[in-house]
Structures are given as structure tokens and as C-alpha cells.
Amino acid sequence: MPELPEVETVRRGLQPVLEGARIAEVTLARADLRFPFPPGFRERVTGRRVVSLGRRAKYLLADLDDGTVLVMHLGMSGAFRIEQAATQTVPGAFHYARSEDRKHDHVIFHLERADQAGLRIVYNDPRRFGFMTLVPRAELESHPFFAGLGLEPVGNALDAETLAHLLAGKATPLKAALLDQRIVAGLGNIYVCEALFRARLSPQRAAGTVATKAGRAGVRAERLAVAIREVIDAAIAAGGSTLRDHRQADGQLGYFQHTFQVYGREGEPCRTPGCGGTVRRLVQSGRSTFHCPRCQR
DNA sequence: AAGTGAACCTGAAGGC
DNA sequence: TGCCTTCAGGTTCACT
């Protein structure tokens, strides 16, 4: 599921439940996800209160009241579920409705809130490419996960000038450059395809050619910067994309996938008015690229 | 240095 | 029905 818009959607879903809650108990179904949980993970999280829930690129950041940050990445198939106990017969004993697939529930955070009892959030991840770790707040920016991250495509950080500068001189295909988190942080395979279509730029064009010879922003860098911001903003507003039955933390489905112009549309007509081209699929560095060879140059 | 491909892991979908 | 292959939203590492 998760590129930046999906992670941001998860963040917005979890925020009202997590912020201000005390993590009363942590259940780990196994010792690792993609990486082992850090030593003492369960003990270090238990009893802490969540001060705020933020996001950087595709990382969720839960600030805890002891100054550490619970860093969470959803990998390819990670998802959170919010669960509310259906009944409370005995104080402290909760019953939860059974859900379809508990097989890959790896982490349960049991929460304690003044206004609500029996609340918990469950991390499910079939492929286990996700991970969680703990980093002191003061060391977050210098941590290897974050030190090299590029521009956030939301807000004011991503402007044509900066983007052109980052791409200048690069011979790598534009598609690969935009997937590189050191340039723009948070884009993934879908939104790179969609942004390139909106910018009418070929995924195969050398990345450096979107800048002018002087390394400054030309019309192409302008178009690309605008396209990236617009597609990410629109996707967040739509609640992200729901593929392969993934759901948001509150069970809602995102609907941006209905807005895809090229992703997954191989062989279908290009939607650029008057183009008349056909969407093609090609493989670049092992990943599918969908584009219209006619209007993307 | 830069670019490509494989690896990590599981499940779904399609072909035969 | 079942077996096999291919593909999937991410990231890192090894190789050319």
C-alpha cells in the first residue's frame, strides 16, 4: 500500500487515537520484522505516553514522553488496524471482534486513554518488509534513515529550482531518479508514474535534462515540480490509494486509485486530450513503469 | 561513480 | 482442483 499519501492517511487515522494515549502494554508476536526489534523494545515503549504522531517521507514518527521517537515504516504490505473492545464484562478484560486475517498481526499496542477504554492498534504486515525502531529525538535527523532524505513533496520544500539542482548532471533515467529517496522523499512507483504523466515527461529521459545547461530550473523542472506536488496533494485529499484490498486504519478505503492516469492501464488509451496514444508498460531497474510514449517526452 | 538486478517474504492471480 | 510462474505499493546490497 504505502507511498507518502498512504502513510499520511494512516497517520491521520491513528493520530486521534494515539496522541495523548498511554501505551499500557505491547504484544510482539515475533522478534523481528524486516529487522529485529531493538533490544528492550517492549520494555522501553511500555508505559510511555504518545505526545504526537508525525511523518517524514514514508516514516511514521511517534514522539514518546521520554524523548524517544518510535519510528515505524510500513514496507510494502504493512497496515494498522484500530480495534475497540466490543464488551467489557470484567474490568480490564476485553473482548475483540474476530477479524478475517490475524495471521500476520505482528505488534499490538494496548492503549490507555482517559476518554476510552479497551482501545488497541494492531500492526499487520504479510511480507514483513516493514520495521520499527526507537531513536532519541535529538538524534533523529542524523540517524541513517533520515540523514540523506531529500525534499518533502508537500509544503514549500519542493520547488523547481531545488529540484533542478538535485537532478542536474544525472544520467540516470528520470524514473529512477524520482524513486531515489535522497532526491524527493516519499515518492514510490505509482506516484512517480503519475507525476511524470502529468508533467508530460518521459520516464526514460536522462534526469539531468530537466534542468537547463546552467543547472537552473527550466520549463520541464517547473512542470515536474508542479506535477509532483499536485499528484501528492490530490492523493492525500482522496485518502490515498487502495490496492489489493488494503484499508486505512479506520477501515475506510482510499479512492485515489480511480484517478490513476497511467498506473496499471497498459494497453488502454492515453487520457491526454487529443493525444490518441496508448499507455505502455516497461521495466526500469526491475520495476514496472507505465507511461504514454506519445505525449510524454 | 553510476546503473542494474537480486535479495528480503508472502499472497494473489493467471496459465495450463 | 492443483501446480507453476509472475507480479506486487520498498529498500539495501552486490556486482558490472
Can you put this structure into words, describing what you see?
The chain is of the alpha+beta class and 297 residues long. The chain has two domains: 4-147, MutM-like, N-terminal (N-terminal domain of MutM-like DNA repair proteins, Alpha-Beta Barrel), CATH 3.20.190.10; 160-291, Helicase, Ruva Protein, domain 3 (Orthogonal Bundle). Helices cover 23% and strands 23% of the residues. The protein has seven helices and twelve strands. The strands form four sheets. It has a four-stranded antiparallel β-sheet with strand order 1-8-9-5. A four-stranded antiparallel β-sheet has the order 2-3-4-10, covered by helices on one side. The longest helix is centred in the C-terminal third of the chain and has 19 residues, at 219-237. The relative contact order is 0.15. The model has no long low-confidence stretch (mean pLDDT 92). The structure holds a DNA duplex (16 and 16 nucleotides).
Protein topology:
Layout: H1 4-18, E1 22-28, H2 41-45, E2 50-56, E3 59-64, E4 68-73, E5 79-84, E6 87-90, E7 93-95, E8 105-112, E9 119-124, E10 131-136, H3 144-147, H4 160-167, H5 174-179, H6 189-199, H7 219-237, E11 280-284, E12 287-291
Antiparallel strand pairs: 1-8, 2-3, 3-4, 4-10, 5-9, 6-7, 8-9, 11-12
Helix pairs in contact: 1-7, 4-7, 6-7
The structure holds a DNA duplex (16 and 16 nucleotides).
Count of extended strands: 12
Kindly provide the name of the CATH class of the largest domain: Alpha Beta
Considering DSSP H and I runs of 4 or more, what fraction of the residues is helical? 10-25%
In terms of DSSP E residues, the strand content is 15-25%
Compute the separation of the termini in Å. 29 Å
Major β-sheet strand ordering: 1-8-9-5
Q: How do the helices and strands follow one another from N- to C-terminus?
A: HEHEEEEEEEEEHHHHHEE
Rg value: 21 Å
| Named CATH topology of the largest domain | N-terminal domain of MutM-like DNA repair proteins
Biggest sheet character: 4 strands, antiparallel
Superfamily at the CATH H level of the largest domain? MutM-like, N-terminal
Per DSSP, the total helix count is: 7
Query: How many domain units?
Result: 2
Q: What would the principal axes of the Cα set say about the shape? A: globular
**Which spans of ≥5 residues are poorly predicted at pLDDT below 50?**
none
